[in-house]
Amino acid sequence: MVERNLSVFTAERLRLLESAVVNSYDSIVITDAGSPTSPRPRIVFVNEAFTRLSGYTADEAIGRSPAILQGPESDPGEVARMRAALARGDVFTAELINYRKDGAPFHVEARIMPIRDEHGRVSYWVGVQRDITARKQAVAEREKLEARLREKQKLESLGVLAGGVAHDFNNLLTIILGNASLARLDARNPAAIEQNLRYIEAAAVRAAELCRQMLAYSGKGRYLVRPVDLNAILCESADLVRSAAARGRAVQLELDASLAAIRADASQLQQVAMNLLLNAAEATEPGSGSITLTTRMQTLSAERLTRAHLGAELPAGNYVVLEIADNGCGIAAEIIERIFDPFFTTKFTGRGLGLAAVLGIVRAHQGAIEVESQPGQGATFRLFFPACAAPANAVPAAAPAAPLSGRGRTLLVADDEQLLRETVRDLLQHLGFCVYAAADGAEAVELFREHHATIDAVVLDLSMPRLDGAAALEAMRAIDPGCRVILMSGFSEDEAVQQFAGCGAARFIQKPFSMDSLLALLTVVIDSR
Ligand code: ADP
Protein backbone atom coordinates (compact mmCIF):
# COMPACT_ATOMS: atom_id res chain seq x y z
CA MET A 1 0.00 0.00 0.00
CA VAL A 2 1.21 3.52 -0.81
CA GLU A 3 2.44 5.51 2.18
CA ARG A 4 0.13 8.61 2.41
CA ASN A 5 2.44 10.72 4.56
CA LEU A 6 4.79 12.20 1.98
CA SER A 7 6.89 13.94 4.61
CA VAL A 8 8.34 10.58 5.48
CA PHE A 9 10.45 10.08 2.38
CA THR A 10 12.19 6.91 1.66
CA ALA A 11 15.03 6.85 -0.85
CA GLU A 12 12.73 4.88 -3.17
CA ARG A 13 10.02 7.53 -3.14
CA LEU A 14 12.49 10.34 -3.58
CA ARG A 15 13.74 8.58 -6.71
CA LEU A 16 10.15 8.24 -8.02
CA LEU A 17 9.32 11.88 -7.35
CA GLU A 18 12.56 13.08 -8.91
CA SER A 19 11.81 11.04 -12.00
CA ALA A 20 8.31 12.61 -12.18
CA VAL A 21 9.83 16.10 -11.91
CA VAL A 22 12.63 15.41 -14.36
CA ASN A 23 10.26 13.93 -16.97
CA SER A 24 7.41 16.38 -16.56
CA TYR A 25 6.22 18.00 -19.80
CA ASP A 26 6.01 21.31 -17.93
CA SER A 27 9.25 23.12 -17.25
CA ILE A 28 10.23 23.05 -13.56
CA VAL A 29 12.85 25.30 -12.06
CA ILE A 30 13.78 25.47 -8.35
CA THR A 31 15.40 28.61 -7.02
CA ASP A 32 16.85 29.20 -3.60
CA ALA A 33 15.44 32.19 -1.75
CA GLY A 34 18.88 33.81 -1.32
CA SER A 35 20.71 34.21 1.97
CA PRO A 36 21.77 37.20 4.07
CA THR A 37 25.25 36.98 2.52
CA SER A 38 23.93 36.41 -1.02
CA PRO A 39 20.43 37.91 -1.18
CA ARG A 40 19.88 37.28 -4.91
CA PRO A 41 18.05 34.03 -5.64
CA ARG A 42 19.92 31.42 -7.71
CA ILE A 43 18.66 28.51 -9.76
CA VAL A 44 19.43 25.23 -7.98
CA PHE A 45 17.53 22.74 -10.16
CA VAL A 46 15.99 22.55 -13.62
CA ASN A 47 14.26 19.63 -15.35
CA GLU A 48 14.58 18.50 -18.97
CA ALA A 49 11.50 20.39 -20.12
CA PHE A 50 13.18 23.59 -18.86
CA THR A 51 16.17 22.89 -21.08
CA ARG A 52 13.94 22.11 -24.08
CA LEU A 53 11.93 25.29 -23.55
CA SER A 54 14.68 27.77 -22.62
CA GLY A 55 17.71 26.34 -24.41
CA TYR A 56 19.81 26.46 -21.19
CA THR A 57 21.29 23.12 -20.07
CA ALA A 58 21.21 22.35 -16.35
CA ASP A 59 24.93 23.21 -16.12
CA GLU A 60 24.35 26.59 -17.81
CA ALA A 61 21.34 27.50 -15.68
CA ILE A 62 22.27 26.32 -12.19
CA GLY A 63 23.88 29.05 -10.10
CA ARG A 64 22.44 31.86 -12.26
CA SER A 65 19.61 34.26 -11.53
CA PRO A 66 16.14 33.29 -12.82
CA ALA A 67 16.16 36.74 -14.44
CA ILE A 68 18.03 35.11 -17.37
CA LEU A 69 14.52 34.28 -18.61
CA GLN A 70 13.50 37.93 -18.85
CA GLY A 71 13.97 40.06 -21.93
CA PRO A 72 12.94 43.23 -23.76
CA GLU A 73 9.21 42.46 -23.93
CA SER A 74 8.83 41.10 -20.41
CA ASP A 75 6.01 43.14 -18.95
CA PRO A 76 7.62 45.34 -16.23
CA GLY A 77 4.24 45.46 -14.44
CA GLU A 78 4.10 41.65 -14.25
CA VAL A 79 7.72 41.42 -13.13
CA ALA A 80 7.02 43.95 -10.33
CA ARG A 81 3.87 42.03 -9.35
CA MET A 82 5.90 38.81 -9.25
CA ARG A 83 8.62 40.39 -7.06
CA ALA A 84 5.98 41.79 -4.68
CA ALA A 85 4.23 38.42 -4.41
CA LEU A 86 7.52 36.62 -3.75
CA ALA A 87 8.54 39.22 -1.15
CA ARG A 88 5.27 38.50 0.66
CA GLY A 89 5.83 34.77 0.33
CA ASP A 90 2.64 34.37 -1.77
CA VAL A 91 1.99 31.98 -4.64
CA PHE A 92 2.31 33.85 -7.95
CA THR A 93 0.51 32.90 -11.15
CA ALA A 94 0.56 34.75 -14.46
CA GLU A 95 0.99 34.50 -18.20
CA LEU A 96 4.49 35.76 -19.00
CA ILE A 97 6.76 36.31 -21.95
CA ASN A 98 10.13 34.62 -21.34
CA TYR A 99 13.26 34.47 -23.48
CA ARG A 100 15.30 31.53 -24.70
CA LYS A 101 19.07 31.47 -24.55
CA ASP A 102 19.13 32.37 -28.28
CA GLY A 103 16.91 35.41 -27.57
CA ALA A 104 13.67 34.00 -29.02
CA PRO A 105 10.61 34.84 -26.92
CA PHE A 106 8.13 32.20 -25.70
CA HIS A 107 4.88 32.45 -23.75
CA VAL A 108 4.32 30.56 -20.52
CA GLU A 109 1.64 30.09 -17.95
CA ALA A 110 3.77 30.35 -14.78
CA ARG A 111 3.10 29.32 -11.22
CA ILE A 112 5.72 30.04 -8.55
CA MET A 113 5.25 28.56 -5.08
CA PRO A 114 7.26 29.09 -1.89
CA ILE A 115 8.79 26.12 -0.01
CA ARG A 116 9.21 26.91 3.68
CA ASP A 117 11.69 25.53 6.19
CA GLU A 118 10.78 24.21 9.62
CA HIS A 119 10.72 27.85 10.93
CA GLY A 120 8.20 28.94 8.30
CA ARG A 121 10.80 30.96 6.36
CA VAL A 122 10.79 30.66 2.57
CA SER A 123 13.89 28.72 1.61
CA TYR A 124 13.11 27.75 -2.02
CA TRP A 125 10.82 28.69 -4.86
CA VAL A 126 9.41 26.07 -7.20
CA GLY A 127 8.47 27.51 -10.57
CA VAL A 128 6.32 25.49 -12.99
CA GLN A 129 5.99 26.86 -16.49
CA ARG A 130 3.68 25.58 -19.19
CA ASP A 131 4.54 26.51 -22.77
CA ILE A 132 1.54 28.31 -24.30
CA THR A 133 3.37 29.80 -27.29
CA ALA A 134 1.41 27.79 -29.84
CA ARG A 135 -1.91 28.78 -28.25
CA LYS A 136 -0.86 32.46 -28.16
CA GLN A 137 0.27 32.34 -31.77
CA ALA A 138 -3.02 30.73 -32.83
CA VAL A 139 -4.98 33.47 -31.03
CA ALA A 140 -2.81 36.22 -32.56
CA GLU A 141 -3.19 34.63 -35.97
CA ARG A 142 -6.97 34.42 -35.57
CA GLU A 143 -7.14 38.06 -34.43
CA LYS A 144 -5.07 39.09 -37.43
CA LEU A 145 -7.36 37.16 -39.76
CA GLU A 146 -10.45 38.64 -38.12
CA ALA A 147 -9.03 42.16 -38.41
CA ARG A 148 -8.27 41.51 -42.08
CA LEU A 149 -11.77 40.16 -42.62
CA ARG A 150 -13.32 43.17 -40.88
CA GLU A 151 -11.19 45.49 -43.02
CA LYS A 152 -12.28 43.59 -46.15
CA GLN A 153 -15.95 43.75 -45.14
CA LYS A 154 -15.60 47.46 -44.37
CA LEU A 155 -14.08 48.09 -47.78
CA GLU A 156 -16.78 45.97 -49.39
CA SER A 157 -19.60 47.81 -47.64
CA LEU A 158 -17.94 51.16 -48.41
CA GLY A 159 -17.75 50.04 -52.02
CA VAL A 160 -21.42 49.07 -52.00
CA LEU A 161 -22.27 52.37 -50.30
CA ALA A 162 -20.26 54.50 -52.73
CA GLY A 163 -21.62 52.51 -55.69
CA GLY A 164 -25.19 52.88 -54.45
CA VAL A 165 -24.87 56.60 -53.84
CA ALA A 166 -23.22 57.17 -57.21
CA HIS A 167 -25.86 55.08 -58.97
CA ASP A 168 -28.78 56.95 -57.40
CA PHE A 169 -27.31 60.40 -57.68
CA ASN A 170 -26.21 59.90 -61.28
CA ASN A 171 -29.76 58.91 -62.21
CA LEU A 172 -31.20 61.93 -60.47
CA LEU A 173 -28.57 64.28 -61.92
CA THR A 174 -29.32 62.90 -65.39
CA ILE A 175 -32.97 63.83 -64.86
CA ILE A 176 -32.04 67.31 -63.63
CA LEU A 177 -29.51 68.03 -66.37
CA GLY A 178 -31.76 66.57 -69.08
CA ASN A 179 -34.72 68.65 -68.01
CA ALA A 180 -32.61 71.80 -67.69
CA SER A 181 -31.45 71.27 -71.31
CA LEU A 182 -35.03 70.59 -72.42
CA ALA A 183 -36.21 73.77 -70.68
CA ARG A 184 -33.64 75.73 -72.68
CA LEU A 185 -34.81 74.12 -75.94
CA ASP A 186 -38.45 74.68 -74.97
CA ALA A 187 -37.80 78.35 -74.14
CA ARG A 188 -40.92 79.50 -75.98
CA ASN A 189 -43.28 76.90 -74.55
CA PRO A 190 -44.22 77.76 -70.93
CA ALA A 191 -46.27 74.55 -70.47
CA ALA A 192 -43.30 72.38 -71.45
CA ILE A 193 -40.97 74.37 -69.21
CA GLU A 194 -43.41 73.95 -66.33
CA GLN A 195 -43.22 70.15 -66.87
CA ASN A 196 -39.38 70.21 -67.00
CA LEU A 197 -39.26 72.20 -63.79
CA ARG A 198 -41.60 69.76 -62.08
CA TYR A 199 -39.28 66.87 -63.00
CA ILE A 200 -36.27 68.82 -61.73
CA GLU A 201 -38.03 69.50 -58.44
CA ALA A 202 -39.10 65.87 -58.05
CA ALA A 203 -35.53 64.63 -58.70
CA ALA A 204 -34.11 67.14 -56.20
CA VAL A 205 -36.64 66.12 -53.55
CA ARG A 206 -35.70 62.46 -54.08
CA ALA A 207 -31.97 63.36 -53.81
CA ALA A 208 -32.68 65.24 -50.57
CA GLU A 209 -34.52 62.18 -49.25
CA LEU A 210 -31.48 60.00 -50.06
CA CYS A 211 -29.20 62.43 -48.21
CA ARG A 212 -31.58 62.39 -45.28
CA GLN A 213 -31.44 58.58 -45.10
CA MET A 214 -27.65 58.57 -45.36
CA LEU A 215 -27.20 61.27 -42.71
CA ALA A 216 -29.55 59.31 -40.51
CA TYR A 217 -27.45 56.18 -41.07
CA SER A 218 -24.31 58.04 -40.01
CA GLY A 219 -26.15 59.14 -36.86
CA LYS A 220 -25.54 62.78 -37.74
CA GLY A 221 -29.05 63.91 -38.35
CA ARG A 222 -30.39 64.51 -34.87
CA TYR A 223 -31.59 68.05 -35.20
CA LEU A 224 -34.24 69.26 -32.81
CA VAL A 225 -34.38 67.17 -29.69
CA ARG A 226 -37.29 67.65 -27.32
CA PRO A 227 -39.78 65.48 -25.43
CA VAL A 228 -41.88 63.73 -28.08
CA ASP A 229 -45.09 61.70 -27.94
CA LEU A 230 -44.31 58.53 -29.93
CA ASN A 231 -48.00 57.54 -30.03
CA ALA A 232 -48.92 60.74 -31.90
CA ILE A 233 -46.16 60.15 -34.44
CA LEU A 234 -47.28 56.56 -35.02
CA CYS A 235 -50.90 57.62 -35.60
CA GLU A 236 -49.75 60.06 -38.31
CA SER A 237 -47.41 57.55 -39.96
CA ALA A 238 -50.02 54.78 -39.90
CA ASP A 239 -52.55 57.09 -41.60
CA LEU A 240 -49.99 57.90 -44.28
CA VAL A 241 -49.12 54.27 -45.07
CA ARG A 242 -52.72 53.12 -44.84
CA SER A 243 -53.64 55.58 -47.55
CA ALA A 244 -50.70 54.75 -49.81
CA ALA A 245 -48.32 51.80 -49.65
CA ALA A 246 -50.24 49.56 -47.28
CA ARG A 247 -53.48 49.49 -49.25
CA GLY A 248 -55.19 46.13 -48.71
CA ARG A 249 -53.26 45.44 -45.48
CA ALA A 250 -54.83 45.76 -42.03
CA VAL A 251 -52.81 48.26 -39.98
CA GLN A 252 -53.70 48.01 -36.26
CA LEU A 253 -52.47 50.28 -33.50
CA GLU A 254 -52.18 49.04 -29.94
CA LEU A 255 -50.86 52.11 -28.18
CA ASP A 256 -50.25 52.40 -24.45
CA ALA A 257 -52.03 55.58 -23.31
CA SER A 258 -49.70 55.94 -20.32
CA LEU A 259 -46.56 55.95 -22.48
CA ALA A 260 -43.69 58.19 -21.28
CA ALA A 261 -42.30 60.86 -23.61
CA ILE A 262 -38.92 60.28 -25.27
CA ARG A 263 -36.27 62.92 -25.99
CA ALA A 264 -36.13 62.75 -29.74
CA ASP A 265 -36.24 64.52 -33.05
CA ALA A 266 -39.87 64.09 -34.13
CA SER A 267 -39.14 64.09 -37.86
CA GLN A 268 -36.53 61.38 -37.42
CA LEU A 269 -38.91 59.21 -35.41
CA GLN A 270 -41.40 59.63 -38.20
CA GLN A 271 -38.72 58.47 -40.63
CA VAL A 272 -38.14 55.37 -38.49
CA ALA A 273 -41.85 54.56 -38.32
CA MET A 274 -42.33 55.12 -42.06
CA ASN A 275 -39.31 53.00 -43.05
CA LEU A 276 -40.44 50.08 -40.86
CA LEU A 277 -44.08 50.38 -41.94
CA LEU A 278 -43.15 50.47 -45.63
CA ASN A 279 -40.97 47.37 -45.23
CA ALA A 280 -43.80 45.58 -43.43
CA ALA A 281 -46.22 46.61 -46.19
CA GLU A 282 -43.84 45.38 -48.88
CA ALA A 283 -43.34 42.06 -47.08
CA THR A 284 -47.08 41.35 -46.87
CA GLU A 285 -49.77 40.56 -49.46
CA PRO A 286 -52.75 42.82 -50.12
CA GLY A 287 -55.87 41.13 -48.72
CA SER A 288 -54.17 38.91 -46.14
CA GLY A 289 -51.49 41.32 -44.91
CA SER A 290 -51.63 42.50 -41.34
CA ILE A 291 -49.32 44.98 -39.59
CA THR A 292 -49.53 45.71 -35.87
CA LEU A 293 -47.93 48.73 -34.20
CA THR A 294 -47.61 48.38 -30.44
CA THR A 295 -46.19 50.75 -27.83
CA ARG A 296 -45.60 49.97 -24.17
CA MET A 297 -43.37 50.79 -21.23
CA GLN A 298 -40.82 48.20 -20.13
CA THR A 299 -38.15 48.10 -17.44
CA LEU A 300 -35.10 46.51 -19.02
CA SER A 301 -32.01 45.04 -17.39
CA ALA A 302 -28.56 45.64 -18.86
CA GLU A 303 -28.36 41.92 -19.82
CA ARG A 304 -31.66 42.15 -21.67
CA LEU A 305 -30.42 45.21 -23.58
CA THR A 306 -27.12 43.53 -24.45
CA ARG A 307 -29.05 41.02 -26.56
CA ALA A 308 -30.35 43.84 -28.81
CA HIS A 309 -28.40 45.65 -31.57
CA LEU A 310 -26.73 48.79 -30.11
CA GLY A 311 -27.82 47.73 -26.61
CA ALA A 312 -24.44 46.67 -25.17
CA GLU A 313 -23.58 50.04 -23.62
CA LEU A 314 -27.08 51.08 -22.54
CA PRO A 315 -27.99 51.44 -18.87
CA ALA A 316 -30.78 49.40 -17.28
CA GLY A 317 -33.97 51.40 -16.74
CA ASN A 318 -37.34 52.40 -18.14
CA TYR A 319 -37.68 52.19 -21.88
CA VAL A 320 -40.39 53.10 -24.34
CA VAL A 321 -40.89 50.09 -26.61
CA LEU A 322 -42.12 50.37 -30.19
CA GLU A 323 -42.97 47.08 -31.88
CA ILE A 324 -43.85 46.70 -35.55
CA ALA A 325 -44.98 43.17 -36.38
CA ASP A 326 -46.16 41.83 -39.73
CA ASN A 327 -47.36 38.47 -41.06
CA GLY A 328 -45.35 38.75 -44.27
CA CYS A 329 -42.64 36.69 -45.97
CA GLY A 330 -40.19 36.92 -43.04
CA ILE A 331 -36.40 37.10 -43.21
CA ALA A 332 -34.08 34.16 -43.93
CA ALA A 333 -31.48 33.39 -41.23
CA GLU A 334 -28.59 33.87 -43.67
CA ILE A 335 -29.48 37.51 -44.40
CA ILE A 336 -30.83 38.68 -41.05
CA GLU A 337 -27.35 39.90 -39.96
CA ARG A 338 -27.03 42.01 -43.10
CA ILE A 339 -30.39 43.76 -43.30
CA PHE A 340 -29.05 46.87 -41.53
CA ASP A 341 -26.14 47.29 -43.99
CA PRO A 342 -26.52 50.30 -46.26
CA PHE A 343 -27.76 49.26 -49.71
CA PHE A 344 -28.37 45.68 -48.61
CA THR A 345 -31.65 44.80 -50.27
CA THR A 346 -33.58 41.85 -51.62
CA LYS A 347 -35.58 44.25 -53.78
CA PHE A 348 -33.71 46.14 -56.51
CA THR A 349 -30.53 48.20 -56.95
CA GLY A 350 -30.73 51.56 -55.31
CA ARG A 351 -32.84 50.34 -52.40
CA GLY A 352 -31.56 49.20 -49.05
CA LEU A 353 -31.15 52.45 -47.13
CA GLY A 354 -34.32 52.10 -45.02
CA LEU A 355 -33.05 49.92 -42.18
CA ALA A 356 -29.58 51.49 -42.32
CA ALA A 357 -31.26 54.84 -41.59
CA VAL A 358 -33.41 53.29 -38.85
CA LEU A 359 -30.28 51.91 -37.17
CA GLY A 360 -28.50 55.28 -37.37
CA ILE A 361 -31.47 57.13 -35.91
CA VAL A 362 -31.92 54.63 -33.09
CA ARG A 363 -28.18 54.91 -32.34
CA ALA A 364 -28.37 58.72 -32.28
CA HIS A 365 -31.22 58.48 -29.76
CA GLN A 366 -29.31 56.08 -27.45
CA GLY A 367 -31.81 53.36 -28.26
CA ALA A 368 -31.55 49.70 -29.22
CA ILE A 369 -33.25 47.50 -31.80
CA GLU A 370 -34.18 43.84 -32.05
CA VAL A 371 -35.45 41.71 -34.94
CA GLU A 372 -37.29 38.41 -34.71
CA SER A 373 -38.22 36.60 -37.87
CA GLN A 374 -38.64 33.20 -39.46
CA PRO A 375 -39.09 32.76 -43.21
CA GLY A 376 -42.82 32.55 -43.96
CA GLN A 377 -43.74 33.56 -40.41
CA GLY A 378 -43.56 37.36 -40.61
CA ALA A 379 -41.14 39.72 -38.88
CA THR A 380 -41.13 41.75 -35.68
CA PHE A 381 -38.93 44.82 -35.22
CA ARG A 382 -38.71 46.00 -31.61
CA LEU A 383 -37.17 49.38 -30.79
CA PHE A 384 -36.22 50.57 -27.30
CA PHE A 385 -35.87 54.28 -26.44
CA PRO A 386 -34.89 55.65 -23.01
CA ALA A 387 -38.05 57.00 -21.35
CA CYS A 388 -38.35 60.58 -20.01
CA ALA A 389 -39.92 61.15 -16.62
CA ALA A 390 -42.84 63.08 -18.18
CA PRO A 391 -45.87 61.31 -19.70
CA ALA A 392 -46.08 61.62 -23.50
CA ASN A 393 -49.58 63.07 -23.64
CA ALA A 394 -48.37 66.17 -21.74
CA VAL A 395 -46.24 67.15 -24.77
CA PRO A 396 -47.96 70.13 -26.47
CA ALA A 397 -48.50 69.87 -30.22
CA ALA A 398 -47.13 72.81 -32.19
CA ALA A 399 -49.82 74.74 -34.10
CA PRO A 400 -48.66 75.91 -37.53
CA ALA A 401 -48.85 79.69 -37.96
CA ALA A 402 -50.10 81.41 -41.16
CA PRO A 403 -47.04 82.34 -43.27
CA LEU A 404 -46.06 85.99 -42.92
CA SER A 405 -45.60 88.45 -45.74
CA GLY A 406 -42.13 89.70 -46.59
CA ARG A 407 -43.29 93.22 -47.33
CA GLY A 408 -41.66 95.83 -45.08
CA ARG A 409 -39.33 93.26 -43.51
CA THR A 410 -35.57 92.98 -43.78
CA LEU A 411 -33.41 89.86 -43.66
CA LEU A 412 -29.69 89.15 -43.65
CA VAL A 413 -28.62 85.97 -45.49
CA ALA A 414 -25.07 84.61 -45.06
CA ASP A 415 -23.68 81.66 -47.01
CA ASP A 416 -20.26 81.21 -48.61
CA GLU A 417 -21.71 79.23 -51.55
CA GLN A 418 -22.42 82.02 -54.02
CA LEU A 419 -25.09 80.27 -56.10
CA LEU A 420 -26.97 79.18 -53.01
CA ARG A 421 -26.73 82.62 -51.40
CA GLU A 422 -28.04 84.33 -54.52
CA THR A 423 -30.83 81.81 -55.03
CA VAL A 424 -32.08 82.22 -51.47
CA ARG A 425 -31.75 86.01 -51.74
CA ASP A 426 -33.69 86.14 -55.03
CA LEU A 427 -36.47 83.91 -53.70
CA LEU A 428 -36.83 85.95 -50.52
CA GLN A 429 -36.86 89.15 -52.55
CA HIS A 430 -39.67 87.64 -54.64
CA LEU A 431 -41.62 87.21 -51.42
CA GLY A 432 -41.21 90.92 -50.74
CA PHE A 433 -38.34 90.86 -48.22
CA CYS A 434 -35.51 93.36 -48.39
CA VAL A 435 -32.35 91.18 -48.24
CA TYR A 436 -28.71 91.86 -47.31
CA ALA A 437 -26.36 89.07 -48.45
CA ALA A 438 -23.00 88.18 -46.89
CA ALA A 439 -20.34 85.75 -48.20
CA ASP A 440 -18.96 84.75 -44.80
CA GLY A 441 -19.50 85.15 -41.06
CA ALA A 442 -17.26 88.23 -40.69
CA GLU A 443 -19.10 90.10 -43.47
CA ALA A 444 -22.42 89.06 -41.91
CA VAL A 445 -21.40 90.48 -38.53
CA GLU A 446 -20.30 93.77 -40.17
CA LEU A 447 -23.62 94.12 -42.05
CA PHE A 448 -25.49 93.25 -38.86
CA ARG A 449 -23.56 95.86 -36.85
CA GLU A 450 -24.52 98.49 -39.40
CA HIS A 451 -28.18 97.54 -39.96
CA HIS A 452 -29.32 95.56 -36.90
CA ALA A 453 -31.95 98.15 -36.01
CA THR A 454 -33.85 97.28 -39.21
CA ILE A 455 -33.01 93.55 -39.58
CA ASP A 456 -35.95 91.31 -38.59
CA ALA A 457 -34.07 87.99 -38.87
CA VAL A 458 -30.77 86.47 -39.99
CA VAL A 459 -30.39 83.27 -42.03
CA LEU A 460 -26.92 81.97 -41.25
CA ASP A 461 -24.97 79.04 -42.71
CA LEU A 462 -23.08 77.06 -40.06
CA SER A 463 -19.88 76.27 -41.94
CA MET A 464 -18.34 79.38 -43.48
CA PRO A 465 -14.75 80.64 -43.88
CA ARG A 466 -13.27 83.45 -41.70
CA LEU A 467 -16.03 83.24 -39.08
CA ASP A 468 -18.39 80.27 -38.90
CA GLY A 469 -22.10 80.49 -38.18
CA ALA A 470 -21.87 79.73 -34.47
CA ALA A 471 -19.19 82.40 -33.91
CA ALA A 472 -21.09 84.92 -36.06
CA LEU A 473 -24.24 84.21 -34.02
CA GLU A 474 -22.32 84.88 -30.82
CA ALA A 475 -20.97 88.19 -32.20
CA MET A 476 -24.48 89.22 -33.30
CA ARG A 477 -25.87 88.36 -29.87
CA ALA A 478 -23.23 90.65 -28.37
CA ILE A 479 -24.53 93.46 -30.59
CA ASP A 480 -28.23 92.64 -30.08
CA PRO A 481 -29.06 89.94 -27.49
CA GLY A 482 -32.58 89.59 -28.90
CA CYS A 483 -31.54 88.96 -32.52
CA ARG A 484 -33.58 86.31 -34.39
CA VAL A 485 -31.50 83.75 -36.25
CA ILE A 486 -32.08 80.68 -38.40
CA LEU A 487 -29.02 78.46 -38.66
CA MET A 488 -28.77 76.28 -41.76
CA SER A 489 -26.48 73.37 -42.57
CA GLY A 490 -26.07 70.40 -44.89
CA PHE A 491 -25.34 68.25 -41.87
CA SER A 492 -25.81 68.84 -38.25
CA GLU A 493 -23.44 67.00 -36.01
CA ASP A 494 -22.39 70.47 -34.91
CA GLU A 495 -22.65 70.95 -31.18
CA ALA A 496 -23.68 74.49 -32.03
CA VAL A 497 -26.98 73.27 -33.36
CA GLN A 498 -27.89 71.49 -30.14
CA GLN A 499 -26.72 74.48 -28.19
CA PHE A 500 -28.66 77.17 -30.03
CA ALA A 501 -31.48 75.57 -31.97
CA GLY A 502 -34.89 75.42 -30.42
CA CYS A 503 -34.09 77.91 -27.67
CA GLY A 504 -36.53 80.52 -29.06
CA ALA A 505 -34.19 83.07 -30.57
CA ALA A 506 -32.37 80.66 -32.89
CA ARG A 507 -33.81 77.88 -35.04
CA PHE A 508 -32.28 75.33 -37.35
CA ILE A 509 -33.12 74.37 -40.93
CA GLN A 510 -31.60 71.40 -42.72
CA LYS A 511 -30.36 71.90 -46.28
CA PRO A 512 -31.80 71.29 -48.79
CA PHE A 513 -35.02 73.07 -47.87
CA SER A 514 -38.00 74.30 -49.83
CA MET A 515 -38.88 77.98 -49.78
CA ASP A 516 -42.14 77.04 -48.03
CA SER A 517 -40.33 75.50 -45.07
CA LEU A 518 -37.91 78.46 -44.81
CA LEU A 519 -40.87 80.84 -44.87
CA ALA A 520 -42.69 78.81 -42.22
CA LEU A 521 -39.64 78.99 -39.96
CA LEU A 522 -39.16 82.73 -40.62
CA THR A 523 -42.79 83.20 -39.60
CA VAL A 524 -42.18 81.44 -36.27
CA VAL A 525 -38.92 83.30 -35.63
CA ILE A 526 -40.18 86.79 -36.52
CA ASP A 527 -43.59 86.32 -34.82
CA SER A 528 -41.89 85.27 -31.57
CA ARG A 529 -40.26 88.68 -31.38
P1 ADP B 1 -35.19 48.04 -48.72
O1 ADP B 1 -36.52 47.83 -48.05
O2 ADP B 1 -35.13 49.30 -49.53
O3 ADP B 1 -34.69 46.84 -49.46
P2 ADP B 1 -34.16 48.12 -46.02
O4 ADP B 1 -32.82 48.53 -45.51
O5 ADP B 1 -35.33 48.82 -45.44
O6 ADP B 1 -34.10 48.31 -47.59
O7 ADP B 1 -34.33 46.57 -45.81
C1 ADP B 1 -33.33 45.67 -46.21
C2 ADP B 1 -33.89 44.28 -46.46
O8 ADP B 1 -34.37 43.74 -45.23
C3 ADP B 1 -35.10 44.25 -47.38
O9 ADP B 1 -34.70 44.26 -48.74
C4 ADP B 1 -35.77 42.94 -46.97
O10 ADP B 1 -35.14 41.84 -47.56
C5 ADP B 1 -35.47 42.86 -45.48
N1 ADP B 1 -36.63 43.29 -44.67
C6 ADP B 1 -36.77 44.46 -44.00
N2 ADP B 1 -37.96 44.50 -43.34
C7 ADP B 1 -38.58 43.34 -43.59
C8 ADP B 1 -39.86 42.76 -43.18
N3 ADP B 1 -40.70 43.42 -42.39
N4 ADP B 1 -40.15 41.52 -43.62
C9 ADP B 1 -39.29 40.84 -44.43
N5 ADP B 1 -38.10 41.32 -44.84
C10 ADP B 1 -37.74 42.55 -44.44
How would you portray this structure in words?
- α6 (190-217) packs across α11, α7 packs across α8 and α13 (441-451) packs parallel to α14.
- The strands form 4 sheets. A 5-stranded antiparallel sheet has the order 2-1-5-4-3, with helices on both faces.
- The chain has helices at residues 11-23, 48-54, 58-61, 76-88, 133-185, 190-217, 230-243, 266-283, 302-306, 333-336, 354-364, 418-430, 441-451, 469-479, 495-500, 515-527, and strands spanning 27-32, 43-46, 92-99, 105-116, 122-131, 226-228, 250-254, 262-264, 290-300, 317-326, 368-373, 379-386, 410-414, 434-438, 457-461, 485-489, 506-510.
- The protein has 16 helices and 17 strands.
- It has 4 domains: 6-131, Beta-Lactamase; 139-217, no CATH class; 226-386, Histidine kinase-like ATPase, C-terminal domain (Heat Shock Protein 90, 2-Layer Sandwich); 410-527, Response regulator (Rossmann fold, 3-Layer(aba) Sandwich).
- The termini are far apart.
- With 529 residues, the chain is an alpha/beta fold.
- Bound molecules: adenosine-5'-diphosphate.
- Adenosine-5'-diphosphate is lined by residues 275, 279-280, 283, 326, 328-331, 339, 344-347, 351-352, 354-356, 379.
